[in-house]
Amino acid sequence: MNITRNNVDALNAVVTVEVSKADYSDKVQKVLTDYRKNAAIPGFRKGTVPMSLIQKQYGKAVLLEEVNKVLQSNLNNYLAQEKLDILGNPLPKVTEDFNWDVEDYKFEFELGLAPEFSVNLDAKNEVVSYKIIADDKMLNEQITRIQKQYGKLIAKDTVEDGNDVSGIFANEEKGINNRTTLSLDAFADKNTAKLFIGKKIGDVITLKTKGLFDDDHKLMDYLAVGHDDVHGLDVDVTFTIDEVTTHEPAVLDQELFDKLFGPKIVTSVDELKAKIKEDAEKQFVQQADQKFLNDVVESLIENTKFDLPSQFLKKWIQVAGENPLTVEEAEAEYAKSEKGLRYQLIEGKIMAENNLQITFEDLKSYTSEMIKKQMAQFGQMNPSDEDVQGIVARVMSNQDEVKRLSEQVMSEKMLNLYKEKVATKSKEVTFDEFVKALYGEI
Q1: Biggest distance spanned by C-alpha atoms of the chain
Q2: Cα angle at 431 between 425 and 432, to 5 degrees?
């Protein structure tokens, strides 16, 4: 068998595989002999069917199958030996008048080659590393929520200032129909809150969505509207009241502090605020890290320039799935997947250049810490090592879980690498400011 390669350009090549009769004839003969031994054809005893009849009935199909096996095996070995970094899979070049009645065959395959490029993590860029702080506004709101949550709930018939109202926001044209509970001070305009005063259960109030809240994103929660739809949303919605409540707030005393955090962990309102701040800012780290990771990825894709064998990839996408795609469908699919493919190549180069690997111990340690955190959420603060490792063993026996956890471990390694090597600007923001940055509004 002879295999040669012609590099069309830096990103495309054609591999020619020449298959001779000597490469496949013995295999074809063996399969046909086995067929003859087991063939059940009327008029012949088992094992006595003439080989000429077997050849006539099965010969062409067996030839095609065995030649294809030899072809694929040798092509794969060639790609491995040559250490070719290809994208997608080899695409056979279609020959309309291919002749299977000869003894020697020639097949051609198109290859899409991975591009050569470099990644500069130290380059100056606009990536921001956010530190989210819990400001006084957030702390006071959280304390108010705690007092309401642990206070006494009192049902009422008529809405008064300071009450909470539950009901359904609706707009048939926009498909809005969402039950929610809100306090009257949630509205941006005090005049809107006044519309509720004196209303009873069953009353319907019509409101305009434009400027209803101090932040349009709140429409996502109260009206169940998607993010892309909330900006500039200017329609009338009805609110049908079905419940009115008021709260007798819980007293901020030692009994409440102990209920929240355990005996004597917090002993004053100042300590309560400090504890809320500490816990909130720990949670914010994960959100800030995720945005940082996303922003670094976008920056790397934007600033790492290289070409792709786009025409090859579009042709490959057409035939790679279970159902063939049209040219137009493949074009659309390529457009959707191009950024992901670019980052996949960039990430692979970064991992190779920085020797980022996942060891069994990495995976085991990560899984162990994850399980301890989950157990702590259910009150098991000090589980035995035997219990934890037993769960770890069960989790790691599931291949799907191992794959998912491996991706998380590598993502954490990439994050730590980016924090170390990517040039960033630090910025301290409140959570409200962070949300706006998340959606590109600051």
Answers
A1: 100
A2: 105
Question: Which own/partner contact pairs does 173-181 have at CB distance under 8 Å and 24+ positions apart?
Answer: 173/235, 174/225, 174/229, 174/233, 174/235, 176/223, 176/224, 176/225, 176/237, 178/222, 178/223, 178/224, 179/242, 180/221, 180/222, 180/223, 181/243
Query: What is the C-alpha separation between 230 and 216, in angstroms, rounded?
Result: 6
Which residues have a Cβ under 8 Å from the Cβ of 383 and sit 6 or more positions away?
372, 375
Name which of 247, 252, 242 is nearest 153 in CA terms.
Answer: 247
Residue-level pLDDT at 10: 94
SS3 101: coil
Residue written as token pair 């329609």: 235
Q: pLDDT tens digits, residue range 335-382?
A: 999 999 999 999 999 999 999 999 999 999 999 999 988 888 777 778
Q: Are 412 and 366 in contact (CB under 8 A)?
A: yes
Distance in angstroms (rounded) separating the CA atoms of residues 322 and 305:
32
C-alpha angle 277/283/288, rounded to 5°?
110
Element housing 141 (H / E): helix 136-149
State which CATH number among 3.40.50.300, 3.30.70.1050, 3.30.70.360, 3.40.630.10 fits the domain covering 2-113.
Answer: 3.30.70.1050
Q: CA nearest 232: which of 174, 167, 307, 182? A: 174
Phi, psi of 53 (to 5 degrees): -70, -40
* Cβ atoms of 46 and 77 closer than 8 Å: no
Model pLDDT, residue 332: 96
Span 152-248: which CATH code? 3.10.50.30
The segments of the chain whose pLDDT lies below 50 read: none
* Closest of 66, 64, 56, 22 to residue 36, by C-alpha: 56
CATH number for 269-438 (one of 1.10.3470, 1.10.3120, 1.10.10, 1.10.1060): it is: 1.10.3120
Torsion of CA 426, 429, 431, 434, to 10 degrees: -60
pLDDT attached to residue 442 = 59
The side-by-side arrangement of strands in the sheet containing 105-113 is: 2-7, 12-19, 105-113, 86-92
